[in-house]
Amino acid sequence: MATSKRANPGGSGSQPLKDSDVRLDCLEDAQLAAKRLLDVVVSCIAIAVLAPVMAGLWVLIRIDSPGPALFRQKRVGKDGRLFVLYKFRTMTHGADEAIHRSAIRRFLRNERLSSDPGAPFKLNDDPRLTRMGPWIRRTSLDETPQFFNVLFGDMSLVGPRPAIPYELEHFEAWHHARHAVKPGITGIWQVYGRGRVSCDEMMRMDVEYARTWTILSDLKLIALTAPAVLRGNGAH
């Protein structure tokens, strides 16, 4: 029998691990290694394939409105660690953050943000958007720079939506379980929810993923992402 040690929650030292515990630990390590390998391989391929698209979008954004093409923002990663997330800019440079903060407060109270039946929990008609902003968001092209975040190890291909630090002020205790894993470009909420579901539903989806993910579930969600993007689910 293996005799690896695990900390005793009661604080009385350590106790031997059972063979079943060791097998579970090895399985978890294998899943994490496979997830990281998938992240690196797919993000490298995506960056290579999408490079011309990203270059063209970079130019169009610079022509469309003053300011940088790339938007950088601090987000909350695994275990609450902050990192810088990259997106293509869809709002006017230096846009007032108060509008989004107000929308987030309402969303976290499960209030509807729009009369659009296809995306009642998404802020539409945002005055901060550039002319190209709505189209870029509908196609999810603004998310493509996040493949670099995945490559750098701050994000995963699949995971919960990365929260903005000020959103944590309104989190309930159980919401933080979503930070047990890296945030992702896609995930359960991104495929099945987005602007169509309330905050409580989004949090349940994220926590469910953090507690139950497998490499097979990741592959399934990746396969479902392209059809969801093409349909524009909740991304109006």
Automatic annotation (TrEMBL):
User: One biological-process term from Gene Ontology?
Assistant: polysaccharide biosynthetic process
KW Transferase (keyword) present: yes
Highest taxon of the source? Bacteria
Give the Bacterial sugar transferase domain ranges. Answer: 35-230
Enzyme Commission number(s) from the entry: 2.7.8.-
Recorded GO molecular functions are:
phosphotransferase activity, for other substituted phosphate groups
What sections of the protein cross the membrane?
37-61
**Which InterPro entries does the record associate with it?**
Bact_transf
For whether the record's keyword set contains Transport, the answer is no
Keywords of this protein's UniProt record, alphabetized?
Answer: Exopolysaccharide synthesis, Membrane, Transferase, Transmembrane, Transmembrane helix
The entry sums up its family as follows: Belongs to the bacterial sugar transferase family.
Q: Can you say what this protein is called?
A: Sugar transferase
Give the species this sequence originates from. Answer: Alsobacter sp. KACC 23698
